[in-house]
Amino acid sequence: MSITQQRIDYIRTQLETWQVDALLLGNPTNRRWVSGFTGSFGWILISAEAAILGTDFRYWEQALREAPNFTLFRWQRSQGEATWRDFLAGVSVVGIEAQHVTLAEFAALRQIEGKTWIELDKTVETAREVKSAEEIAQIQAAAAITDLAMAEVPRLARPGITEKQLAWKLEKIMRQNGADSLAFETIVASGPNGARPHHRPTDRELQIGDNITIDMGAKRDGYYSDMTRSFFLGDEPDAHFWDVYNLVLEAQQNALTNMRADMKGNEVDALARDIIEAAGFADEFGHGLGHGVGLEIHEWPRLGKTETNTLPVNAIVTVEPGIYLPGWGGVRIEDLVVVTESGVDYLSRCPKEPIIPIRHAATGTRVL
Ligand code: ZN
Ligand code: ZN
After folding, report:
1. How large is the average pLDDT for residues 223-249?
2. Residue 361 above 60 pLDDT?
3. Per the count of CB atoms within 10 A, which of 79, 175, 221, 335 is most buried?
4. pLDDT of amino acid 360
């Protein structure tokens, strides 16, 4: 049975739990996950009897090809409410995506007579946490592209290059190696800029003695990757750099070594956070430990202090503790892993060697 048919069947098993006749999906990511359809306009309706994809003239051929498990419905924008009435014929209680439907769409839906709308907080997001073998392979491919670019950092991060120039060189490497686009704007944070976890690259030139945090990912065939490494530009960092770097590394390693499926998001978070807090940096690690990655860069499950959801087998998550010290900079180390019954499988494989020696960096000689 195709993965798409399995996903349709899954939704049918949930209809009773949601107390609806049918589920209406308009969010592009959820729509793609359940149907395979990647067009930018479409509505999906799944009931016990039917699986319908409504789209317009522009995407008709594409929908035929990408969504063979769905009955296609020709969307006629010009006919307004009549199109909606036809599309929703035969169902009366319909679940909608409360996190995604706009106020304007909801206002239009409420005009249709004889329908009851049930606002659902999550629909297929929970099922999306569990990646299929094919999805794991796709995310692995995106992660491998990120590995390739990160491996070039010791060669590229020379004194005098700006954060923006370095970000652009890394983007080019990812694009040349098959990325469709960046997963998000690459973060290159040097020196004191590293104190901001989501710093945007500036014209600041890298200097000897900087610590540099680089957080980047590739998007390929709809799937994302995400990885962070922190570096020191120079031969001999001071003891403070090593204290902070080794603490973050130890916290990350403790989480990666001891996490496994069936743990709660807050339990995994504590594996790293307890170590950082015990060293006196509770307030300097101000974000969650990690997040799910798939068709979105941030999705479920989440690892954080207040997350009580359980990690399923074959969830893909980041593990990314960090410490941020205003005026000094920051250190964050992030890996992408598949959660298994006994632990994790690594998708990020780039080594964690932070030192970029000056004697090589200054002349541009390849070190690796
Ligand atoms: Zn990241
Ligand atoms: Zn991340």
Report:
1. 97
2. no
3. 335
4. 53
In a shared domain, residues 7 and 105: yes
pLDDT, tens digit, for every residue of 104-141? 999 999 999 999 999 999 999 999 999 999 999 999 99
Domain termination residue (choose one: 128, 163, 187): 128
Kindly identify the ligand whose nearest atom is closest to the C-alpha of 317.
2
Query: How much is the pTM?
Result: 0.93
Residue 315 C-alpha to ligand 1 middle, in angstroms?
17
Ligand nearest to the CA of 299: 2
**CA pair distance 351, 361, nearest whole angstrom:** 18
The per-residue b/e assignment along 202-232, b for 16 or more CB within 10 angstroms, e otherwise, is eebbbeeebbbbbbbbbbbebbbbbbbbbbb
Residues 20 and 42 in one domain: yes
Domain match, 77 and 226 both: no
CB neighbour list of residue 95: distance below 8 Å, 6 or more residues apart: 15, 18, 20, 22, 23, 24, 118, 120, 123
Range of the structural domain that residue 174 is part of? 133-356
Q: Which two tokens stand for residue 315?
A: 């969830």
In a domain, 367, yes or no: no
Ligand 1 centroid, distance to 220 Cα (angstroms): 16
Residue 363 is assigned to a structural domain of this protein = no
Q: Is 25 helix (H, G, I), strand (E, B) or coil?
A: strand
Contact yes or no for 145/218 (Cβ under 8 A):
yes
Among the bound ligands, name the one nearest to the CA of residue 319.
Answer: 2
In the reported structure, the alpha carbon of residue 226 is separated from the centroid of ligand 2 by a whole-number distance in angstroms of: 6
Query: Mean pLDDT of all residues in the chain?
Result: 96
